[in-house]
Write a structure and sequence with these properties.
By secondary structure, this protein is α+β, with helices and mostly antiparallel strands. The chain is built from 4 helices and 10 strands; from the N terminus they run H-H-E-E-E-E-E-H-H-E-E-E-E-E. It folds into 3 domains: 36 residues; 85 residues, SH3 type barrels (Roll), CATH 2.30.30; 70 residues, SH3 type barrels, CATH 2.30.30.100.
Length: 199
């Protein structure tokens, strides 16, 4: 009888040790998973978590303190684009470099979903495209833009995009780019960009 108790006790100890080991392994796997998450991954998870499938608005603080309410729609390699939530700027789209984000200000309901697992590498082309490519598309389309940098804002049309900077022809926001409307030029380093707004 005593042997039965001894074996039962040993068996329960072994079971407990195995459960402890499995729990420690699960904790370590979770720590490694969280260690691989990027800010882009967390924004993407928040955007995917909206039950209405319209995408959730996320408050983003840019360098310099500007707060932007954004409904992320497309994620590139180093940028995110979407629509802003400000009613005065209805239908305004923007491109935000990930490097320009000082902080993401999630709601309590967005915090936990932002930690969800990232899907395996996607075949979507947009997720491999860098910021200069997107800006070159705006340049090619001759889209009037508002370029916000850490130093201020400028309205105009992007004339060209190089590796690390863009040329902006300055003109009034309500006028198309014509030589007669251009009142100056700016060469803007991409590292200074906070957001590019357009319609």
């Amino acid at each position: 009888m005593r042997w039965d108790l001894l074996f039962d006790d040993l068996e329960s100890q072994i079971d407990q040790e195995q459960r402890d080991e499995e729990r420690a392994l699960a904790i370590e796997e979770e720590r490694l998973r969280l260690g691989r998450l990027t800010l882009r991954d967390r924004l993407s998870a928040i955007a995917r978590s909206d039950p209405d499938d319209h995408g959730a608005f996320v408050r983003i603080e840019l360098h310099g303190g500007r707060i932007l309410s954004l409904r992320p729609q497309v994620f590139g390699r180093d940028w995110v684009s979407g629509r802003t939530a400000e009613p005065a700027q209805n239908d305004l789209q923007c491109v935000v470099p990930i490097a320009a984000i000082a902080a993401v200000l999630p709601t309590r309901a967005q915090l936990e979903p932002s930690l969800e697992s990232v899907p395996e590498a996607s075949a979507r082309i947009a997720e491999r495209i860098g910021l200069p490519f997107v800006l070159r598309d705006l340049c090619r389309r001759r889209t009037p833009v508002r370029v916000s940098t850490v130093d201020g804002e400028s309205h105009g049309t992007i004339d060209r995009v190089a590796r690390d900077h863009l040329d902006l022809a300055l003109h009034d926001a309500d006028r198309p780019r014509r030589d007669s409307a251009v009142h100056g030029y700016r060469i803007v380093p991409l590292s200074r960009l906070l957001v590019v707004d357009f319609r």
